[in-house]
Amino acid sequence: MQITVHGTQTALLGKEQSVGKEAPAARITKLDGTQNVIGMIAPTVQLLIAIPSLKTEVCSLGAKKFNDLIKEFKKLTTYMITTDDKEFVKEYAAKESIDGAELVIDTDRNFAKKYGLLISEGKLKDRLARAVYVIDRDGVIVYKELVPEIVDEVNYDACIEAVRNAVNVKKKGHTHEEWMSV
C-alpha cells in the first residue's frame, strides 16, 4: 500500500485493513502514560483518526474540525492517534480545547502496524498516514478512508455520515419478541 508525501510515492508498512473486516485490537498510550487497547468489539461505535503530526497546519485543523463535528454523537468513542511526543500532545489538547475525542499516542507503532499506516521512509518515516476508520459495536470496520496525499484532508462529510449510520444501527442479537416467537 502506498500514499504520496508532497507528491513522492511512499510505502506504508503493516497489515492493510478494509471495510467489512474485523478491526484489530491495537495498543496505544494515553496522555496519563497508561496503556489502552482500541479497535475490536466495544460498547460504543469507535472513530479512529490517524494523525501524522499535530504540529502541522492540516493535522491541527483536522483535529479541531473533528472535535466539533463529533460532539453531536453521545454513543461514539473517538480516538485521535498520533506519534507526537506526549508533552506536546498534552499542551495541544489543553490549548485547543480538544474535549470531544481522546488524544492518544502510538508510542511503539502498534496501531500503525496493525492498520497498515506506518510511513516507511522520508522525513515522515515512522509517522502515521492520514486515515479514519469507523468501527461498529460488533468490531467490524464499516468505513475507512486512507488519504492518498498526506497534505490533503479527509472527507469529513462522508466520515460523519458513516458515523451517523453506525451509531443508529441496532446491535445484532435477538430481541425479546424474536425469542417469544420461537
Automatic annotation (TrEMBL):
What are the alphabetically sorted keywords of the record? Disulfide bond, Redox-active center
**What Gene3D superfamilies does UniProt report for this protein, alphabetically?**
Glutaredoxin (3.40.30.10)
Domain (Redoxin) ranges: 19-158
- Pfam families the record matches: Redoxin
Matches recorded under SUPFAM superfamilies: Thioredoxin-like (SSF52833)
Looking up PANTHER family in the UniProt record yields:
THIOL PEROXIDASE
**The protein's name:** Redoxin family protein
Organism, per UniProt? Sulfurovum zhangzhouensis
